[in-house]
């Protein structure tokens, strides 16, 4: 066993131990789902930011930087913009409703607003889509571990999947928040050391620029290659209404905490957004002929850093992947236990029953994601599936429901059905290139249009 792998396993053991220790306090579903609504600004900031810096924000964004240059900033930058809109627009509104009605999940809100049928459909859609993004987190780490420590993909997926499943299952949001705080510190230190060290190893910025591809827009900010401001169409809606983030918001102790903590997380994302693309650009100087651009980050960790510094960088990446993965596992376990089991399978279930099912759902979700990760080839491809379905199925009903009580289940059912159908049709039609990123907004536009039409028709019938 090499020193890098030993260091990583030791760090994993610390995270698991911390999670199990804190998880001893969690004896009720309310504590597991929303920490009793006691999260202060520091813990909420840490758990929201850690959830948003995952496979796409590190391995994926560095790969985009390697391939497309500086415009890859928009992959993480768009997440930051969406998080700021969550902080000052959706977050405080939905926190008030969750506090008033003792809501645990986004499904609770959808049933309160539109009825049980909408809750069931959205929960099922999220289970299918969420498994893809959870698998994407595991794929990213497995690639890095393969390159850095010569560990096979299946073992990397098992390590990452096992760590996040154990500590999350122990205590839900409470353990995630505390473990995420530790992970965030490691992430900041790791990337803070890796970036200047890798730049020095590549010969400085002038050498990096000289080794860049001979493309006129490679250092363009707004667009270069397939990257650029167009990512906003895919990512901003998803980060405004992400169930995992909203359910973390439910755990805040007051509205001020939501605005402060989530707002600072959005600002931090805007600043962090430049780091992975820069590492990808540096990787191009170190290894200009990579067969797979998503190997840019592990290439930097091996070629651009001494072993000890590379190990710290690896721990930072591991922190990013696992902290984001536990947020996805949070969505899976709470959705199955609260939105499906308690609502449709056993309405009379006790608090203890719901907590037990939530923990078993986390184990099932983690295990299924490991299996799926072994078959999916691409990190960004896996994440795109999730972000598209998330934005199309939830954006219109959630936003409309917060601003008006008049629309009902018919509007929402039609909006979900048409929005998802339009996106599927766009994908099957073979649309490629830049327009593919607009499939999300095409679906949202269709969803909103049908929502308004059904609302208008129902209004006219009611006046007859």
Structural account:
With 464 residues, the chain is mostly helical. It has one domain: Sodium/glucose cotransporter. Helices cover 79% and strands 1% of the residues. The protein is built from 20 helices and two strands. A two-stranded antiparallel ribbon has the order 1-2. β1 (223-224) and β2 form a beta hairpin. α8 runs antiparallel to α9 (173-201).
Identify the CATH architecture: Up-down Bundle
| Average pLDDT reading | 85
Number of strands: 2
Please mark out the parts with pLDDT under 50 across 5 or more consecutive residues, or reply none: 432-436
List the helices and strands and how they pair.
Elements: H1 3-23, H2 29-34, H3 41-52, H4 56-68, H5 73-101, H6 106-114, H7 116-149, H8 153-171, H9 173-201, H10 205-211, E1 223-224, E2 227-228, H11 231-240, H12 243-250, H13 255-272, H14 275-286, H15 296-303, H16 307-345, H17 351-373, H18 379-403, H19 409-428, H20 439-463
Antiparallel strand pairs: 1-2
Helix pairs in contact: 1-8, 1-9, 1-16, 3-9, 3-12, 3-13, 3-16, 4-14, 5-11, 5-13, 6-7, 7-8, 7-15, 7-16, 7-17, 7-18, 8-9, 8-16, 8-17, 9-14, 9-16, 10-14, 11-18, 12-16, 14-15, 15-16, 16-17, 18-19, 18-20, 19-20
What would you say about this model in short?
It is built from 20 helices and two strands. By secondary structure, the protein is mainly alpha-helical.
Entry keywords:
Sodium/glucose cotransporter, 1% strand, mainly alpha, two-stranded antiparallel ribbon, single chain
